[in-house]
Amino acid sequence: MAYSRVASRYVKSLLSLAVDQGALEAIHNDMLLFDSTFKTNFDLVLMLRSPIVKHDVKKRILEKIFKGKVHNLTLAILDILTRKNREPILPEIASDFHQAYNEYLGIEKATILSAAPIDEKLRKEIKAIVKKLSLREEVELVETVDKEMIGGFVLNVGDRQIDASIKNKLKKLKVTFKRNPYIREL
After folding, report:
1. Domain range for residue 85?
2. 123 and 155 in contact (C-beta within 8 Å)?
3. Which of 3, 30, 50, 138 could form a disulfide with 74 if both were Cys (CB 3.0 to 4.6 A apart)?
4. Secondary structure of 9-29 in the HEC alphabet?
5. Does 186 reside within a domain?
6. Do the Cβ atoms of 58 and 83 come closer than 8 Å?
7. Greatest CA span in the chain, whole angstroms?
8. Model confidence pLDDT, tens digit, residues 10-66
9. DSSP secondary structure letter of residue 147
10. Residue pair 148/167 in contact by the 8 Å Cβ criterion
């Protein structure tokens, strides 16, 4: 089954409904809660995808977990999904909603991989670079530290990548040194 196509339709509908009802932030927070829950509890995802577990049982489990913690509109979406036997796509809806939320508000998501945590001054400079590359006013910066990187950073903005890592520069040097201009290649 093409989960992503179906999930994207539900995401668009949920986003539109949340905007119409003035509950965009609440629904966004609910979807972030769902996403983190599904990423940390794979058994729950397997239960949602299981054809053996009845849909009404899945609905009761989801309500027990999330009732009182999420907006009423979110509970209504859970009800619709379980009535239409679409609860297996709930993890995809939860993860895709954040991207749709960012697009709606004009926020560009960027990831930076660095050898050490970055300070506030560098964070502001990186956000300025991302704003220039994406032509968006707001930036969501996801920072990751990789100790094996030695130094520098790798910045991903949309489909662009800026690799200013020492690891990459060393790799380029290695390739350059393998070529010997004094030995004729056959």
Report:
1. 3-103
2. no
3. 30
4. HHHHHHHHHHHHCCCHHHHHH
5. no
6. no
7. 75
8. 999 999 999 999 999 999 999 999 999 999 999 999 999 998 989 889 889 998 989
9. G
10. yes
